[in-house]
Each structure stands twice: as C-alpha cells, then as structure tokens.
C-alpha cells in the first residue's frame, strides 16, 4: 500500500516537472512561469494550463502564431517586452479573456489593429512604449471599459484621434511623451480631450510638440485654442470631378493640381501664431486694469478739488478781517464827505 502511494506521488511529481517547458522556471505557489533571458525564438510549448503570469521578456521572439496562448486560458499577466515583434496578429491573443496586464515595450512594432483590442476585453494595463508605432486605430468601434493605463511614449506618433481615447472611458493613466507630435489642427481635438481628462482627475505626462518649428518643444496644453485654424475639408466638387474624369492625358495635370491643393491645405492647417490672441482672460484683465486706472485718476482729481477748496477757504478766512475794516473806513469817509457838502 505504501509502495503504491509512493509510486503515485512520484508519478504526480514527475508530471508536474514535465509540464514546465524547457529553459523556463515554474513557480507553483504563484502559478507563474518565468522564461525570460533564455534566447527563445518562439513561444515555448507545454505551458501549465493553470499559469496566471507568463514572463517572456528579453528573448528573440519575432512572431506570434494564431492562438499562441491557447494552452493558458487563465493568464492574467503577459510580459513580451524587449523581443523582436514587428507585427501582431489579433488572432494571437484569442482565448485570453482574463488577461489584465500586457507589456509590449521595446519591440519594433509599427502599428496595431483595432481587432487586437477586441480580443482582450478584461485588459487593464497596456504598455506599448519604446516601439516604432507610427499610427494607431482611429477608433475601436466599441468601449474598452476595463482599461485604466495606456502607454505609448517613445514611439513615432504624429497624431492620435480623440475617438480612440473616448473608447477608453476608464483610463486614468496616459503616457504620451517622446513622440513626433505634429501640433496642427488635427491635434486640436486631442488637446480638448486632454484638458477634460486632467480636469476629471486623470494623469498624463503631456504632449511635447515635435513640429512645426513654431511650437517645437512646447507642451500642447499650453498653446491657446485661438492659434489653431479649422481643418480644411475636402471639396465634394473636386472629389466628384476626379471620379467622373476618364483616364487620359488630362489626368496627370489634375493629379498634380490636387497634390498642390493638398499641400496648401496642410499649410493652412498649421497653427498660425498671432501677436495678441483674443482671449476672455485677456479681455477681463484689460477691463480690470482700465477700471483701476480710472479709479486712481478719479481719486487724484477728487483730492485736488478738496485741496483747492480747502486752500481757498483758508485764504479767504485769513484775508477776511482787513477787508472788512477797509470797507468800513471807506463807508465812513464817504458819509463825512456827504455831510460836509453844501445843502
């Protein structure tokens, strides 16, 4: 009996040992698997199905196959930082309905598809910093309600549509620095969204403009709204004419004309600085300063009037006695002359 128990225990332990992939360290107490710093080129097979944390950072993984993590459906944390991933297929994360933390920093990623976000409904933290991402989806099509931290600093982003951020109503931490932000009219919507985000208690490291030269190095939030011109809309007449035009010799000049119009639109879209932008704060300050100056002038005039009246009263009081005596003596002398005149 004892031999049977020992044999079954040995088989159980052997199965536990065998279930841990080669070059990985499995921690049964925390249900975590550490495969970092092993020079792996692909996701290791035979991962324990009860794994909650999978560490794959600092390897050479360059591609994720479809359903790459189907063997670990309970996964909560996945670290794929510092690998060679340049493209991510949304199907690679299918089945990770419980994933909460995804770290993809320091990879040569170029872009992401919106379907990637749909595959991870419970995700709370997404770190995409230090990649080569030049654009993100304009919208997710549905709300990503559980996401609280979104990091894209250290990429090649020039624009970020506010609709993407509006799809993350629960986000509280937003990291956007160290990108090639182009602070023109297309970024005005993001500026307005960030102002509301900060007002409602959100935290962000800000957006530092990379272009144009007028705003290079400045924080987007410090540029007044009035310095942005409305974004030009494409003319429907031009669009219809380009669709109705038949292929021929006149098509090339038309395309060059549209190209020049597009360049002109981009130039008009740039933020145009003004020496004194109209602002409600400036108007209020001007009214206050004018009122203060007018009040000071009125007080000075009132003081001068009081001083003049006081000086005149004192002068009149001091000269009042001699004047009365002189007038009395004049009256007496006139009376004597009148009396001494012949009847």
The proportion of residues forming helix, as a percent range, comes to 25-40%
End-to-end C-alpha gap: 174 Å
Going across the major beta sheet, what is the strand order?
1-2-3-4-5-6-7-8-10
Low-confidence stretches: 1-17, 234-268, 270-278
Total strand count, please? 11
- Radius of gyration from the CA trace? 41 Å
The level 1 CATH classification of the domain at 17-229 is Alpha Beta
Q: Looking at this structure, what is the CATH superfamily of the domain at 17-229? A: Ribonuclease Inhibitor
CATH topology of the domain at 17-229: Leucine-rich repeat, LRR (right-handed beta-alpha superhelix)
At CATH level 2, the architecture of the domain at 17-229 is: Alpha-Beta Horseshoe
Strand fraction equals 5-15%
Q: What is the mean predicted local confidence, pLDDT?
A: 78
Sheet with the most strands, sense and barrel status: 9 strands, mixed
Would you list the SSEs in sequence order as H and E? HEEEEEHEEHEEHEEHHH
Query: Strand pairing plus helix content: what structural class?
Result: alpha/beta
Give the number of helices.
Answer: 7
- Quick one: overall form? elongated
């Amino acid at each position: 009996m004892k031999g049977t128990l020992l044999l079954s225990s040995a088989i159980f332990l052997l199965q536990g040992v065998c279930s841990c992939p080669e070059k990985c360290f499995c921690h049964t107490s925390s249900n975590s698997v550490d495969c970092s710093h092993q020079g792996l080129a692909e996701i290791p097979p035979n991962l324990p199905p009860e794994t909650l944390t999978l560490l794959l950072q600092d390897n050479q993984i360059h591609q994720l196959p479809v359903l790459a993590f189907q063997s670990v459906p309970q996964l909560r944390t996945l670290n794929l930082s510092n690998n060679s991933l340049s493209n991510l297929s949304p199907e690679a994360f299918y089945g990770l309905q419980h994933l909460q933390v995804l770290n993809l920093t320091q990879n040569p990623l170029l872009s992401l598809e919106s379907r990637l976000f749909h595959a991870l409904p419970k995700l709370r933290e997404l770190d995409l910093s230090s990649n080569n991402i030049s654009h993100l989806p304009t919208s997710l099509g549905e709300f990503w309600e559980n996401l609280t931290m979104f990091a894209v600093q250290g990429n090649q982003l020039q624009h970020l549509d506010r609709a993407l951020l509006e799809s993350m109503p629960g986000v509280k931490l937003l990291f956007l620095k160290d990108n090639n932000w182009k602070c023109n009219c297309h970024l005005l919507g993001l500026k307005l969204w960030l102002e509301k985000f900060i007002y409602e208690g959100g935290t962000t490291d800000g957006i530092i403009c990379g272009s144009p030269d007028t705003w290079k190095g400045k924080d987007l939030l410090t540029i007044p709204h009035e310095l942005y011109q409305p974004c030009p809309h494409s003319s429907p007449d031009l669009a219809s004419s380009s669709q109705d035009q038949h292929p021929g010799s006149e098509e090339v000049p038309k395309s060059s004309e549209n190209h020049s119009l597009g360049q002109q639109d981009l130039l008009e879209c740039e933020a145009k600085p003004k020496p004194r932008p109209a602002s409600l704060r400036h108007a209020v300050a001007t009214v206050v300063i004018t009122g203060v100056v007018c009040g000071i002038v009125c007080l000075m005039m009132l003081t001068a009037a009081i001083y003049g009246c006081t000086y005149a009263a004192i002068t009149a009081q001091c000269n009042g006695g001699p004047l009365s005596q002189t007038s009395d003596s004049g009256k007496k002398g006139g009376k004597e002359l009148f009396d001494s005149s012949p009847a």
